[in-house]
Amino acid sequence: MEHQSFRRSQLIAFDGAAAGHEGVLSDPSGIVVIKPCKEAEIEFYQSTSSHPHFAIYIPTFMGILSLSANADSSSASDAGPSSLARTATMIPTAAGSAIPLESPHTIAQAPVVESAWAPSNGAKISTDRAIVLENVAAGFKKPNILDVKLGKRLWDDKAPPAKRARLEQASEETTCGSLGLRIEGMRIWQNGEKVDGDGDGFSFKDGYKVYGKQYGRSLSAETIRHGFEEFFLLERGAAAKGLARKVINRFLEDLDGLLYVLEREESRIYSASLLFVYEGDKETLKSVLAAEPEKDALKRAGNNETYEETHERDDDDEGGPPAVQALKLIDFAHAEWTPGQGPDENLLHGLKSTIKVLEGLLKSS
C-alpha cells in the first residue's frame, strides 16, 4: 500500500462545515477533516474504540496529527519541506493513502490550568494538535448540511463560573432551554436556481444558501419546525412527501438507532451536535431513491430493531450507489464516560426532541 506524508503547504482550509470553530483543515482530496482540539477531546475519541456501538454514530476516528514541529499552531498552513509529525504512525485513509499520525503512546498528560476565561466566539483553538476524522460529506455530490446542538445544559463540571453563566443564559434564551436542541448552522444547495443578495439570517455562497448561528438563535419552540422545513426544502406547514419524506424517514431510523445506543451508555456529553447530511442534487437523489418505498415512520420498528437495520444498511452501502444521507454525533470537547451514573438524560432530552420535530414534518402543522 502506498504511504503518503503531507507537507504543511498541502493542508487546506475546510469549508464544508455548517458551524463550529475556525481553523479546521482538510487534505487535498477532501476525504478527511483535521480538527484542532484539546487533550480532553483527543482522549475521548481514543476511548471510543471500547464503545463500538457508539462509534458507529460518530465520524470515523483515524488518529492524531501534529500541526507543527515547533508547537506553533499558526504554522499549520505555512509552506515547509518537513512532514507535519516528527514521530508518526502511518494509518491508511479511505482512499488507500495514509497520513502521518502520532503514536498514541506519545500523548502528553499535562494538566490544563484555566486561570481566566473569555468567550471564543468560534475563533481558532490554540493548540498544535488535531484529530483526523472522516469527512462525513465526502461521498455526496452536493451535500446539504445541518448542525443541531444538543442539550439544555451546555457546560461541563470543569467550566469556570463565567463560562457557566454565559452558557446558561444562552440556553435559556434559545431553544436549548425549551427543547434541548438548537440549530447552529445550515448549508443548502439551491440546484442551480439563481439567487440574488442575502436575506434575514442567511447568505448565498457558491450555490448554497447558508444559515449561521443567529438564525437558529432567532427560532423558538413554536417556530423550530421552520428551520427544519428550510433544510428539507419543504413548504411551510405542509407534510413532507416524495423524496423529502424518504430522506426524513432514513434520518428517523438513524436517530432511533442512536437513541438505542445512548440509552445503554453511561456518559456525560455536553455541547455536542447532531450532523445531518443528505444529497442536495435533486437528480442524484431521485436516481438513488426512485425504487425505495415510502414508509410510515410514525409506525417504524422499535429502537433495537432499528439499530440493527440501520447498521446493516450502512454496511450494504459500502461500494454501492451514491450516498443518500448520513447522521453523526460530533464535537466531544466536553465528554467523558461515567460508569455507574446512568445514561446522559441531558443529551437524550435533545435527541428525543429532535426525533419529535422530524416526526412532525411528516404531518401538516
Give structural notes.
With 365 residues, this protein is of the alpha+beta class. Helices cover 29% and strands 20% of the residues. It contains 10 helices and 15 strands. The chain has helices spanning 39-47, 52-55, 161-172, 175-179, 213-218, 224-231, 242-262, 282-289, 303-317, 345-361; strands at 12-13, 25-26, 32-36, 61-66, 89-92, 98-101, 129-134, 143-150, 181-189, 202-205, 208-211, 267-269, 273-279, 325-330, 335-337. Strand 2 (25-26) and strand 3 (32-36) form a beta hairpin. The radius of gyration is 20 Å and the shape is globular. The N and C termini lie far apart (55 Å).
How would you describe this structure in keywords?
365 residues; alpha+beta; five-stranded antiparallel β-sheet; 10 helices
SSE diagram, text form:
Blueprint: E1 12-13, E2 25-26, E3 32-36, H1 39-47, H2 52-55, E4 61-66, E5 89-92, E6 98-101, E7 129-134, E8 143-150, H3 161-172, H4 175-179, E9 181-189, E10 202-205, E11 208-211, H5 213-218, H6 224-231, H7 242-262, E12 267-269, E13 273-279, H8 282-289, H9 303-317, E14 325-330, E15 335-337, H10 345-361
Antiparallel strand pairs: 1-2, 2-3, 3-7, 4-7, 5-6, 8-9, 8-13, 9-11, 10-11, 12-15, 13-14
Helix pairs in contact: 6-10, 7-9, 7-10
